[in-house]
Amino acid sequence: MHSMTSEAFQRLTMHAAVLEEDGFGPKVYLLEDGSFLKLFRRKRFFSSEALRPYARRFAENATVLRGLLIPVPEIKGVYRMADPLRTAVHYVGLPGNTMRASMREADEAGRERLVRRFGQLLAHLHDAGIYFRSLHLGNVIVLPNEELGLIDFADMQTYRKSLSISKRKRNLRHVQRYEEDREWIFETYLATLQESYREATNTPDFQMTL
């Protein structure tokens, strides 16, 4: 992790567009060259962010996912800043649209195809011991070739063995947090999700009951 001065931060973001912000300020910048700068702040004084900053987790998790042949953003740098007091990751995004946007635009056959790929991706993650707490259709990118990639995975956890049945079920509940996602994945196309997951997983007896 490298240090970034206030002057360097100002130069980098001078002509950038703010894509996401909260009451504490900007969270994601679209930089002039088309790359992104994502900022993380420590929410509590005693926080895991102090020991293992989220920017570093983001970069490390990208390496893990890339090792599983899952498309992820290309990491350009990881930084610690004093003004503003943040850590940051600089990356090049994936081409394509979010799966949520793609589902809205697709016809019936296209939606089934996307849900099938999502079930395969979910099984791949679970079998590899990946617990992606923030997984939802806004964090899944549909590439131009319809392969699925992942973004915004700083809070991902990696286990040494495949996820247990209870962790798999808990992860499925997280995916349902957005009503639109839940209606598509767990209602309209649930049978497709179940079939594709079962065909791809090393735990075929897993029952996707929620």
From TrEMBL:
Annotated InterPro entries? Aminoglycoside_PTrfase, Kinase-like_dom_sf
Question: Which residue ranges does the record assign to the Aminoglycoside phosphotransferase domain?
Answer: 22-128
Q: What Pfam families would the database entry show?
A: APH
Q: Which named protein is this?
A: Aminoglycoside phosphotransferase domain-containing protein
The record, for SUPFAM superfamilies, names: Protein kinase-like (PK-like)
Record Gene3D superfamilies: Transferase(Phosphotransferase) domain 1
Give the organism, scientific name: Stutzerimonas stutzeri
Record lineage: Bacteria, Pseudomonadati, Pseudomonadota, Gammaproteobacteria, Pseudomonadales
